[in-house]
Amino acid sequence: MNDKPSVLRETDEDARVQARNLMHKAAHAALAVIDPDTGFPSVSRVLTAMDADGAPVILVSGLSSHTKALMKDSRASALFGEPGKGDPLAHPRLTLRCSAERIERRSQAHDRIRTLFLDRHPKSKLYIDFPDFCFFRLVPLDASLNGGFGRAYILSSQDLMML
Predict the structure, then answer these.
(1) What are the CA-CA distances from residue 27 to residues 33, 41, 53 (Å)?
(2) Cβ-count burial 21-37 (b if 16+ within 10 Å, e if not)
(3) Domains of the chain: which residue ranges?
(4) Is the pLDDT of residue 84 over 90?
(5) What is the pLDDT of residues 59-82, one digit of tens each?
């Protein structure tokens, strides 16, 4: 029998808003994938933007190891949140578990996401249309929010999406 109180708080609207803000305000995230050759986790920094429904999107090169990994296994995690002054662990952060869905270049979704991405990252115009580049939607499965000291939450995909 475990009489220890849970360190997790009940997810409330403040936690949902903080989690969405961490994703929406981020210009980049740390993307974790599973290396298909070794089975080890691999982490890269990626630029992010948000699709209309609140799912993060990334633009990646087919030459990168993280793109090759996502093509073999769509499971991924993304870490959002920037440390500020002082203890980096005292600042809010969100770990998103997701399924990466590649966006086909000739789809309506591609056109929508391309526009959103360029709005967020205008300098990506230099390479966004290179043939080896593609978009992935990071479809949320769930997330772990550390909202600051003593403020830990587990969020569902519904908590994160703009439905």
Answers:
(1) 19, 23, 17
(2) ebbeebeebebbbbeee
(3) 25-81+91-157
(4) no
(5) 999 999 999 999 999 999 999 998
Structure confidence at residue 134 (pLDDT)? 97
Q: Averaged over 21-47, what is the pLDDT?
A: 96
Ordered alpha helix ranges (H), 43-156 = 65-72, 108-120
Q: What's the CATH class of domain 25-81+91-157?
A: mainly beta
User: Burial letters for 76-111: b for 16+ Cβ neighbours within 10 Å, e otherwise?
Assistant: bbbbbbeeeeeeeeeebbbbbbbbbbebeeeeeeee
- Cα–Cα distance for residue pair 91/107, rounded to 1 Å: 38
Q: What's the pLDDT band for 55 if we cut at 50, 70, 90? A: very high
**pTM score:** 0.92
Round to whole Å and give the CA distance between 26 and 158. Answer: 20
Q: Do residues 155 and 54 touch, judged by C-beta distance below 8 A?
A: no
Looking at the chain, how many residues does it have? 163
Assign 3-state DSSP to the chain and report helix, strand, coil percentages, each to 5.
Answer: 30, 35, 35
**pLDDT at position 74, please?**
98
